[in-house]
Design goal:
- By secondary structure, the protein is of the alpha+beta class.
- It is built from 21 helices and 66 strands.
- The strands form 16 sheets. The chain has a 7-stranded antiparallel sheet, with no helix packed on it. A 7-stranded antiparallel sheet has the order 4-5-14-10-9-7-8, covered by helices on one side. Strands 47-46-45-42-41-40-48 form a 7-stranded parallel sheet.
- About 50% of the residues are buried.
- Its EC number is 2.4.1.82.
- Belongs to the glycosyl hydrolases 36 family.
- GO terms for molecular function: galactinol-sucrose galactosyltransferase activity.
- Pfam families: Raffinose_syn.
């Protein structure tokens, strides 16, 4: 016997995978298979037509646990668990059963690693069919019924054959995902979340005005709130101006008469424009109008996104039919009619009010015009999107207009069309929309609220809120990004809510009153740039929590899981004893108030994180490192191992679950992330490892700042975070020489800032130390700047022996003795003077103490690293101390040990150290000559204050201060290795390097602008006169190892972009072209291998066309071949003109999911595609669709 997954009715029983699910199935029930995947639709027929039918599906057999998501109010779902059909509530919109599979010889085997004990799951989803929607409900006789209704007595049917979708599987999360994708294809009325454009506000910290001001919101209050965030150092980047900004009228509340509760919801919209509070005639006179106000807060506070609130019907009570502005939309007063399913659960004060006073409803044919007028006006005021509330009201207004489903779909399509037309970025958040009418009509809407409001004044609602958002995300998370709502950062339950938001995969925003923030909590959620560490999916209960009650069973904790890019995360929350579910009986010994009950316990395992193998690498054997956020503990566990956690009510713990990677030499390693952020692992973006015979180097790309943690089975030799390598810097040497001062340095930094290019790395060179022949016991003035200069021996001539501060290092006097090899070349004036005056240097036994004291002091002053100069002097004082190599070895080891101890990274630059004594001794050091190798150690300038050419600087430096640094040291091309590019009168210098996806060649005419130092004792010569232009050939073949950055489809052809001329050409790898340059001129060529894609498309990313190293802006490239389209995805760092070679004109291009204008001349032969990247200088995702 073969047991299949396809549902079927046999002998009056509904069978799934060999199990009886329902008995007594009526004869009018029909089962229709969907495809070949084991799913089906359930339906039924009636003998008479009606606008509302209730059909029985049969009796739910015992032995099943169930999870129901049902509408407790018209607006919101909550979960309910149980074991019998009688417990299934009215308005159930998802029903999940847990079952045990019957054994059989040919059972289908599950590939799911979490699959145990033949457990499988059966999913019932009541859906939409034509003009009808479906819900499930139980009866006291344990029957499972489905209700189909149109919401219009004139819209009737006698059958509904595709009312309930049923499917089964071993993994409940895959089951839900696959089922929603099947329904997407079958119904065609909505889209799965993977096929929607994500609004960019999701990745930024936000503030909503609702709980801060309610409807009393005003420009003055918003300014006060933003100012308080600014002063606390944690500014929101998106703002929701909630209810209170619109021009409304309440006809049922008369001045001088007592207030009647509920009449506030009957208020109606008068105009699409803002009310007087947001105009100059407002009492606080803080803005001219809404446009002026939004522009001002964006400019002053750096707000990226401003959303405005409105109801789906315009306002709570709709629009005012007598308003001159509203008459064009033909509004009429209608009185809501609720479904018996809604009134059979909890009634709502809003609906009670509107049933009495009516709603001003815009006719369906005019609703797009209304939305378009409203949204185009808001967009003209610099508004970026909208939060659209009170959405389920529409289901009650379907009488006479085709019913609830038709009206909801009409409104939803008009709303989404207007959003796409006016805001472009799909900037829409839906709210109060938990009915299947809206859920299964959502084609573009990508964000929706996951539960009833966070209610700061209701202590018994806090645990219900956390449980509701997690359980509701099971269904909602497959169609939208669930919005877990705002919260207060200064609240008794703030930590509880903050931890949940951190792992919810949702937007993170608060509704704090001005000055009422807890910035300690906010800094665990928000990075300094205002972004958040958002997990990849919607946070959902772990598998072992799906059928328990985490709020009222007095024993179960709620575990919520999610994934980051390289790790999982689990939040454990004790929601017991602090509230009770509505419509559920409360045991006498359960208190409704916040409880201080004793702890309860549960077990946490890596096994709780679904799909963890997706973020592990091929070497993963199942072991994980478990980091507990609150306790700070780190544990190693196998995949199915567990640890016990005990928590009191309204407390929580977060665990980062990071799969341990196995590298060479039995090294076990895994990154944890930023240890002081709730979602630590969200900070880790990528990891790669390079190995050779003697070492293993692990490189981690991360976001944010703070304490980074990782698990390692072996103590590393060193850890490097060379911050200066990727940032623009300023060195004080040629600007001031030894005459620098704090005031002069501040002036210089101010000049850079005024020009829009402030350096991110400052090198304070020689001149800051106390070197006079006086008794001064301090190393440095009290400065707190980035890098500090010192000589390897302390200063040029070593230490002052009479200094009491230095006598403990026992400096020894010596006269330098140079090697005959040095003496045979140029005599150095520095050594010449030292040979006359001698050097006081520290012996090997004391040198670490000296460096450690110096660096320890500098680190205590906030210094991040050191530039250590005059290093080769040590080779001249080795006599009597073991020789030059031995002494240099001791100095170098002591220096590197001190840098690693005090600066925690490899923030060390060595200078004047070009001897092989050093070259073969360094382990963490970045070597430079006096003429800095800027292609490797970062871009530094030595400009005097006010003497800058910002046009040049902007070709080197991105607006955030970072640089486009290539992968390795720039070196001469192979055909230049044996030429003299300075004095032979004919050769140009070509320097090659690699970026991540391209090569680069710089060509420089260095001839006759100087001469190599020719003979001992001579001076550097600059000959008079000028030189003619010189020529050379440039080829892709000049770039070594270019194949390493080309894709597998590369046939050798390259796109070659010339920076100065702006020309783009293509050529084979061994092809070449001629370059002609005048004296001290240069040209830079980006060499990008052309990828041959599907549909005969050839493509090569160039990068940022206005940056010298254009290709350094390209971070990643991915190609996807679809049935009807081909997509190239490019990740780019920075902003400006992005260029690429394409032999075909794209259909369209998007930047960060927003469609973007592009330039492509189909008649030109160069194939240059250009997209302007505007706004923030960050990583941008470009999609090019053919």
């Amino acid at each position: 016997m073969t047991i299949t997954a396809t549902p079927s009715v046999k002998d009056g029983c509904l069978m799934v995978r060999g199990r009886v699910v329902l008995t007594g199935v009526p004869e009018n029930v029909a089962v229709s298979q969907v495809g070949s995947g084991g799913s089906a639709f359930l339906g039924a027929t009636s003998t008479s037509p009606s606008s509302r039918h209730v059909f029985s599906l049969g009796v739910l057999e015992g032995g099943y646990k169930f999870l129901s998501l049902f509408r407790v109010k018209i607006w919101w779902m909550i979960p309910r668990v149980g074991k019998s059909g009688s417990e299934i509530p009215l308005e159930t919109q998802m029903l999940l059963l847990e079952a045990r599979e019957q054994s059989a010889l040919h059972d289908e085997i599950s590939p799911d690693p979490n699959y145990t004990e033949n457990t499988f799951y059966i999913l019932f989803l009541p859906v939409l069919e034509g003009q009808f929607r479906t819900s499930l409900q139980g009866t006291p006789a344990n029957e499972l019924q489905f209700c189909v209704e149109s919401g219009d007595v004139n819209v009737q049917t006698s059958q509904s054959l595709e009312a309930v979708f049923i499917n089964s599987g071993h993994n409940p999360f895959e089951l839900l995902k696959n089922s929603i994708k099947i329904l997407e294809k079958q119904k065609g009325t909505f889209s799965h979340i993977e096929n929607k454009k994500m609004p960019p506000h999701l990745d930024w910290f936000g503030w909503c005005t609702w709980d801060a001001f309610y409807t009393e919101v005003s420009p003055q209050g918003i300014n006060e709130g933003l100012q308080s965030f600014l002063e606390g150092g944690c500014l929101p980047k998106f703002l929701i101006i909630d209810d209170g900004w619109q021009e409304t009228v309440n006809e049922f509340s008369k001045e001088g008469e007592p207030f009647t509760e509920g009449t506030q919801f009957a208020s109606r919209l008068v105009d699409i424009k803002e009310n007087n509070k947001f105009k100059s005639l407002g009492s606080d006179n803080t803005c001219i109008d809404l446009h002026d106000f939004i522009d001002s807060i964006k400019d002053k506070y750096g707000i990226k996104f401003v959303y405005m609130w409105h109801a789906l019907a315009g306002y709570w009570g709709g629009v005012l039919p007598s308003s001159e502005t509203m008459k064009k939309y033909n509004p009429k007063i209608a009185y809501p009619i609720q479904s018996p399913g809604n009134t059979g659960n909890l009634r709502d004060i809003v609906m009670d009010s509107l049933e009495q006073y009516g709603v001003g409803v815009i006719e369906p044919q005019k609703i797009f015009e209304f939305y378009n007028d409203l949204h185009s006006y808001l967009a003209s005021c610099s508004v970026d999107g909208v939060k659209v509330d009170v959405q389920n009201l529409i289901e009650t207004l379907g009488t006479g207009v085709g019913g609830r489903v038709s009206l909801t779909r009409c409104y939803q399509e008009a709303l989404e069309k207007s959003i796409a037309r006016n805001f472009k970025d799909n900037n829409l958040t839906c709210c109060m929309s938990h009915n299947s009418d809206s859920i299964y009509s959502s084609k573009k809407s990508a964000v929706a609220r996951a539960s009833e409001d966070f209610t700061p004044r209701e202590p018994t609602f806090q645990t219900l809120h956390i449980a509701s958002v997690a359980f509701n995300s099971l269904l909602l998370g497959e169609i939208v990004v669930p919005d877990w709502d705002m919260f207060h950062s200064k609240h008794d339950t703030a930590e509880f809510h903050a931890a949940a938001r951190a792992i919810g995969g949702c937007a993170v925003y608060v509704s704090d009153k001005p000055g009422k923030q807890d910035f300690k909590i906010l800094r665990k959620l928000v990075l300094p740039d205002g972004s958040i560490l958002r997990a990849r999916y919607a946070g959902r209960p772990s598998r072992d929590c799906l059928f328990i009650d985490p709020v009222m069973d007095r024993k179960s904790m709620l575990k919520i899981w999610n994934l980051n890019k390289l790790s999982g995360v689990i939040g454990v929350f004790n929601c017991q004893g602090a509230g009770s579910w509505p419509l559920k009986e409360v045991a006498q010994d359960i208190c409704n108030a916040t409880s201080t009950s004793s702890s309860i316990s549960c077990h946490v395992s890596p096994h709780d994180v679904e799909f963890l193998e997706e973020v592990a690498d091929e070497s993963w054997n199942g072991d994980c490192a478990i980091y507990a956020f609150n306790s700070g503990s780190l544990t190693k566990l196998p995949r199915k191992g567990s640890l016990e956690v005990s928590l009191k009510t309204l407390t929580c713990e977060l665990y980062t679950i990071s799969p341990i990677r196995v590298f060479g030499n039995d090294l076990l390693f895994t990154p944890l992330g930023l240890l002081d952020m709730y979602n630590s692992g969200g900070a880790v973006e990528a990891l790669n490892c390079t190995k050779d015979l003697s070492s293993c180097t692990i490189k981690i790309k991360g976001r944010g700042c703070g304490r980074f943690g990782a698990y390692s089975s072996t103590n590393p030799k060193c850890c490097m975070l060379p911050a200066h390598l990727d940032w623009f810097g300023w060195n004080t040497w040629d600007a001031f020489y030894t005459n620098d001062s704090a005031e002069a340095i501040e002036d210089g930094l101010r000049n850079f800032s005024e020009g829009g290019c402030p350096p991110k790395c400052l090198f304070i060179d020689d001149g800051w130390q106390n070197t006079a022949y006086e008794d001064d016991e301090q190393f440095t003035e009290d400065t707190k700047l980035a890098y500090i200069w010192h000589a390897l021996t302390g200063y040029w001539g070593g230490l002052l022996p009479d200094s009491e501060a230095l006598e403990r290092f026992s400096p020894k006097f010596a006269y330098p003795v140079q090697s005959p090899g040095n003496l045979s070349h140029i005599i150095c004036v520095t050594i010449d003077q030292m040979q006359k005056g001698g050097v006081e240097f520290v012996l090997s036994s004391k040198i670490f103490d000296f460096y450690n004291d110096l660096h320890g002091y500098l680190a205590s002053c906030g210094i991040d690293g050191v530039k250590v100069d005059v290093q080769n002097i040590v080779e001249t004082v080795g006599a009597g101390y073991g020789g030059r190599v031995t002494l240099i070895s001791h100095y170098q080891e002591a220096l590197e040990k001190s840098v690693m101890r005090n600066f925690k990274s490899s923030n060390l630059i060595c200078s004047m150290s070009m001897s092989n004594d050093y070259l073969y001794r360094v382990t963490i050091t970045r070597l430079t000559s006096m003429a800095q190798q800027e292609h490797w150690v970062g871009v530094q300038l030595i400009d005097k204050p006010g003497s800058h050419n910002f046009n040049i600087i902007r070709k080197l430096v991105l607006p955030d201060g970072s640089i486009l640094r290539d992968r390795c040291a720039g070196r001469p091309t192979r055909d230049c290795l044996f030429n003299d590019p300075v004095t032979d009168g004919k050769s140009l210098l070509k320097i090659w390097n690699l970026n991540k996806l391209s090569g680069i060649i710089g060509v420089f005419n260095c001839q006759r602008a100087g001469k190599w130092p020719p003979v001992p004792g001579s001076r550097y010569l600059r000959p008079p006169g000028s030189a003619p232009s010189l020529e050379c050939h440039v080829s892709p073949e000049d770039v070594e190892f270019l194949k390493e950055v080309a894709g597998e489809s590369w046939n050798g052809t390259c796109a070659v972009y010339a920076f100065h001329s702006g020309s783009l050409s293509t050529m084979p790898k061994k092809g070449s072209f001629e370059v002609c340059l005048g004296l001290l001129k240069s040209e830079i060529f980006t060499i990008s291998p052309i990828r041959v894609l599907g549909h005969d498309i050839q493509f090569a990313p160039i990068g940022l066309l206005d940056m010298y190293n254009s290709g350094g802006a390209i971070e990643a490239l991915e190609c996807n071949d679809g049935e009807s389209a081909y997509m190239v995805k490019v990740q780019v760092q920075g902003c400006g003109r992005f260029g690429a070679y394409s032999n075909t004109k794209p259909r369209f291009c998007t930047v960060d999911s927003k469609e973007k204008h592009f330039m492509y001349n189909a008649l030109a032969s160069d194939g240059l595609l250009i997209i302007n990247l505007q706004g923030e200088c960050s990583f941008r995702d470009i999609e090019i669709v053919y």
